[in-house]
Design a protein that fits this description.
The complex is a heterodimer of chains A (252) and B (296).
Chain A lengths: L1 H12 L2 H18 L6 E2 L2 E2 L3 H33 L3 H5 L5 H33 L9 H25 L2 H16 L1 H10 L2 H13 L3 H13 L5 H16 L10
Antiparallel strand pairs in A: 1-2
Chain B lengths: L1 H20 L6 H12 L18 E4 L4 E5 L2 E5 L9 E5 L2 E7 L1 H11 L8 H27 L11 H5 L1 H18 L4 H19 L4 H27 L5 H4 L10 H17 L1 H5 L7 H10 L1
Helix pairs in contact in B: 2-4, 4-8, 6-7, 6-10, 7-12, 8-10, 10-12
The chains are: A mainly alpha (252), B alpha+beta (296).
């Protein structure tokens, strides 16, 4: 299994998407961190560390989640398309272990990209005289990895049973709803009737990726995590990962 | 087999953590805010001697649950209605104060307000007094309040006023006259300012449909008095009330501005006729009382 993960990781390292996303993420962080970005909310400019830092964490979270989706959506279908899977079965490796290893390789590749982006966040902290917060950076990185884990495993399990386009769209829907969870929740309270019912159903069937982003940001800012929110996210990750042991690819 | 055991144990641990950390009680912060609001009861002067804050049934809406005050504690219950609104609602025969938790209000504020503005615990305590007052209003004067013209008008009723440039300018002039009256101590001068206000208001009324006029008078009366109570609660907590008392620098669309004009009318009545204020029962709009004062 470790060989499979190593091999998967080497393959992912050759994918240009990985580097494109790292470069895009770094460029965005550089742009935001330089103070040249003219961001505003309700006409009020967003400047200074306390206002800008959460925005930076939003960017890191969204970049890594989209990267997780992009890397994962083709991985399993591509392996079957190349018809190399029989080489795995003859070695006595089960389908769940194979799929799980491929997903884990993707997760590690995204984590690698995450480490690079977090390095940039660390530099931003030091530049703004917030070097004392560097200690919490690793914890925050671990926290945000729950989100990339959720998206990686979700996209991977969906791609076991559905073509990449369907799996990608479904996963993107979950990603978008997950990142926009607080906005959707707020809108659901603003309406009643079927609009509110649909929104509440969407909220129930999608993980709150923003809660984890918020906790990852809070850890650096010195806020205690919401333990219930953390367990909820870990249960999502666990529940989706269980599907690796349930779903089977028919072609095999 | 070993994998299955690991998975099972992991699942059980996560479920234990999930249920172990799930909220069964109202957050300490909200409890503290409610207790802070309760503590004002002995010091606050709302002008409505019948309004006893502690007597108003209260529910905190927390999204997935309501926390209902029962005796000295808050009990978790199914949400009464899942709408983000601070209001008074008839429930089980009593008007109940229903208010989102401070955490939810903060969330809305962070989404809608400029980054440097914050929803504070003090403001939430004052909002409790404001919405509690609506519960008192409806519990005791429901017939009078619902009989007021303009009751039940939609926000669209205010659009003609917001769309008319001359009406906008006249509203700001009227607000200035009210502000001068509130800050004046001499009753004769106060009456002069009220006369100016009524004159401007009549000029403005001629520009607006009757439906808009009625909706404005209703809001000024029902919300103006509640906004006054909110201001008094803020003051009783030792907070700066300039956000309430300063003359607004610019016109704002929507019904929010009538809270302020109504508050000023109530304060003028407070100064000129405290006896009438004591017996006020919401059967007359505050604007009508201002018109009567102007004629005196």
């Amino acid at each position: 299994m470790i060989t499979l993960i190593q091999h998967g990781l080497q393959e992912r390292a050759r994918r240009r998407e990985l580097f494109v996303f790292i470069a895009l993420g770094l460029l965005l962080l550089l742009f935001l961190g330089s103070g040249n970005a003219a961001l505003s909310v309700n006409g009020e400019p967003i400047t200074g560390f306390t206002m800008l830092f959460p925005v930076i964490m939003h960017v890191v979270n969204a970049t890594l989640c989209i990267l997780a989706l992009v890397l994962s959506v083709h991985t399993i279908p591509e392996e079957y398309r190349r018809k190399t899977s029989h080489l795995i079965w003859v070695r006595g490796i089960s389908q769940p272990a194979y799929h799980f290893s491929l997903a884990l390789a993707n997760f590690l590749a995204v984590a690698l990209a995450g480490l690079i982006l977090y390095g940039a966040v660390g530099l931003y902290l030091v530049k703004n005289g917030e070097g004392a917060r560097l200690g919490a950076l690793l914890l925050s990185f671990g926290m945000l990895s729950i989100n990339t884990g959720i998206i990686t495993s979700l996209t991977s399990v969906l791609s076991i049973v559905w073509p990449p386009l369907v799996a990608g769209l479904l996963s993107f829907f979950v990603l978008l709803a997950g990142i926009l969870h607080p906005v959707l929740e707020w809108v659901s309270y603003w309406f009643d009737g079927w609009t509110a019912s649909v929104l509440r159903a969407v909220l129930r069937i999608t993980p709150d990726l923003d809660a984890i982003r918020s906790m990852a940001t809070g850890l650096i800012q010195g806020t205690a995590p919401d333990w219930h929110g953390l367990f909820t996210a870990l249960l999502w990750l666990y529940g989706i990962s269980l599907l690796f042991f349930v779903l089977r690819k028919k072609e095999a | 087999m070993k994998t299955k055991i690991i998975l099972l144990v992991t699942g059980l641990l996560l479920l234990t953590g999930f249920f172990g950390t799930s909220k069964q009680a109202l957050s300490e912060r909200n409890v503290a805010i409610y207790e802070k609001a309760l503590s004002l009861e002995d010091t606050i002067d709302t002008g409505f001697s019948g309004y006893v804050f502690s007597a108003v049934p209260v529910r905190f809406f927390a999204g997935d649950a309501d926390y209902v005050r029962k005796g000295d504690t808050f009990v978790k219950q199914k949400p009464l209605f899942q709408v983000l609104a601070a209001t008074a609602l008839l429930h089980e025969g009593n008007y109940t104060l229903i208010v989102p938790t401070v955490e939810m209000m903060e969330g809305v504020f962070s989404l809608l307000s400029p980054p440097d503005t914050q929803y504070t615990d003090t403001l939430h305590a004052a909002v409790l007094w404001h919405e509690g007052f609506h519960a008192y209003q409806l519990e005791n004067y429901e017939n009078q309040v619902t009989a007021l013209p303009g009751c039940g008008a939609e926000d669209s009723a205010f659009q003609p006023a917001d769309a008319n440039e001359a009406a906008r300018a006249l509203f700001m002039d009227g607000l200035k006259a009210l502000h001068q009256a509130v800050n004046e101590e001499d009753p004769q001068k106060i009456r002069t300012y009220v006369k100016t206000f009524v004159q401007l208001a009549e000029e403005r009324d001629a520009l607006l449909p009757e439906e808009t006029q009625a909706a404005e008078r209703f809001k000024e009366t029902v919300e103006g008095t509640a906004y006054f109570v909110e201001m008094r609660a803020t003051e009783a907590m030792g907070e700066d009330i300039s956000a309430y008392t300063d003359l607004p620098a610019f016109y704002t669309n929507g019904p929010g501005k009538y809270y302020n004009s109504g508050r000023m009318m109530w304060m003028i009545l407070n100064k000129l006729d405290p006896v009438r204020m004591e017996s006020y029962d919401f059967s007359l709009p505050l604007r009508t009382i201002m018109e009567e004062i102007a004629k005196e």
